[in-house]
Amino acid sequence: MMSNETRDVQVQETEKQEVMESGAERTRDQIAFVPRADIYETNETIVVVADMPGVDENSLDITLENDVLTINGYVEPVALDDYRLAYAEYRVGDYHRRFTLSNQIDRENIEATVKDGVLRLHLPKAAPTTRKIAVKAG
C-alpha cells in the first residue's frame, strides 16, 4: 500500500563540493573536497558514514578539539605509466569536514573505521547524569 504522503526531496549536485576555508591556509598544494556524509542515530549511538574515495587508515587524520571533530583525508594522485590524461570527469583531492559535537556524546569512546574509501565514525551517547544536590543550612 502506497502512502499519499509527499516529502520534499533535496537534490544534491553530483559534482564534488570544494572546501572553502575562511582564514585558514592549507599546507598541501592540492584541492580539498567536503566528503558527503550520512548520519544515523539509535538510542545508544550516532554513526557518521562519509564517502572518501582513495583514503585508507594510513591517510586519515581525525581529531577532537573543543567539541569540534575534524576529519582530514589525504589522497595522492596516481599517475599511470605511459599514459597521459586525455579527458577527466573525476577530480582527485583531499577531504576535509568538521562536525560540532553536543555534550551528549561520550568523547572517550569514539571509534573510527575505514574500508574501501568509506569512513564510519561511531559516536556513543553519554549516559545521562542526574544526581541529587544536598542543601545545607547556612
State the main characteristics.
138 residues, mainly beta, Immunoglobulin-like, four-stranded mixed beta sheet, 8 strands, 0% helix, elongated
| Low-confidence sequence ranges | 1-12
Q: Which structural class best describes the helix and strand composition? A: mainly beta
Strands, total number? 8
Can you tell me the CATH topology of one domain? Immunoglobulin-like
Helix content: under 10%
What is the string of SSEs from the N terminus onward?
A: EEEEEEEE
Strand % is 25-35%
Number of helices: 0
What is the CATH architecture annotation of one domain? Sandwich
Strand order of the largest sheet: 1-6-5-4
Characterize this entry briefly.
By secondary structure, this protein is mainly beta. The chain has no helices and 8 strands.
